[in-house]
Specification:
Structural class: mainly alpha
Distance between the termini: 36 Å
Shape: globular
Largest sheet: none
Number of strands: 0
Helix content: over 70%
Length: about 475
Amino acid sequence: MNIFDSLLQFFTTPDAEWSIVTMPFMVLFIVFFGGYIWLNRMRHTAMLAYVVVFSLFFAFKANGWLMLLLPLTVLLSWKMTDMLRRCEAGRRRWLLAATVAVELLPLLYFKYTNFFIETLNGMLATNFSLLSIILPIGISFYTLQAISYTVDVYKGRFSAEVSLLEYAFYLTFFPLLMAGPITRAEVLIPQIQERKALDERLVYAGLWLIIVGLLKKAVVADYIAQYNAWIFDDPLGYSGFEGAMGVLGYTLQIYLDFSGYSDMSIGIAAVMGFQLRENFNFPYQSLNLTEFWRRWHIALSTWFRDYVYIPLGGNRKGKWRTYLNSFVTMLLSGLWHGASWMFVIWGALHGIGLIIHKASKWWLDKIPNTWYVKFAAFLITFIYVAVGWVFFRSPSVESALTLLGHIGSDFSWDYLPPFLSTRLVWMLFLVLGFALHGLRKRHSDRLSEWFVRSPWLVKLLIFVVVMQLVINFRQDSVQPFIYAQF
């Protein structure tokens, strides 16, 4: 096969492993970025169109021709929201409901049709056959982003006029396409509309985030993932100690995997001149579940707060209504993650945990804020979150309970020496990952600032070392981002 045929095949064939962490994307991005710099200096409109085309190609590589849902959503969402902006007061509520329904319908069909059929079969003892449906990658994220734009326009929180091209850029922007973070119109669209030169500091800060994201995802998370999978696939095939290590491993893996993606996504946007908000803020340092959800997947947490919890009444309708609103919000958050009762159970666990924390706050505030009280609060919160991840990851309730029960009945520190001798690198990654997570945000910011100010040769050396680590620790195949499946 000659070079022309290889290029033709690359540009016309979807790739199940396609993501921002793969080598083909990185090479293509470098080529794309050269054209982006030139167009950004010359013609703003041409630059926007260039990025939209590249974003649609990115969606094609990930989804094949299912990517056509994306431009269709762009067109319908933009047109109907524009009509909503201009229509008379008496029709606005109905048009809002219609617009949100149109934006939500593809997600409901592709993600929840078979879940509904399975549930119906179980409840009514029917035997409707399941449909052959492939979930388009990124649909959950761009759907919520479209809904947030429509609601913000309706409520007057975002009033700027937006062209179809600008909206297409906003909803298809490739760094956000696969797994967010969900970005509000007020954050990104003003930057899209503003013509400005690239900021050198922002470019280097973005490069630092890309490096950190690669270390998190492609080195540590992917390396520890294989052992974690063994534990969850066969809970009784290992000792209780090994099971506990698998639970700790997955607790670290899902954080590094998703925050690594967020870092790379925000970093790529920064290299292109766009500043996005952070999506993770050292969540495992939290002292309660309320704090955890202010630090974990911040974009999704604030989305459900602003567009579900507050519209339900928030904390404005009394104590019991507040508890109910918290519980319903977390149930819906769990269901958003996937069409499975395991995700509903995970959401319910966090909903119950939030209710317990809210109900106990009046006497918790009376406890002296000493270091050992903080440590106890941290430990309780961390264990609760880790147990929740068992239900999130396990294929069934029975499997989750089997793993937790086996850890409780067969845990012994005697397994530690042989475990260290056979899985030393895995254990080092686990300890290092949690130790670095213990850093304060100011320390992380200082490290980023040091990188930005360092000579270009130091930057290059760091990047080369990280890429060598990625090559050395890579698995046989690219591990898909966990949140890409949602």
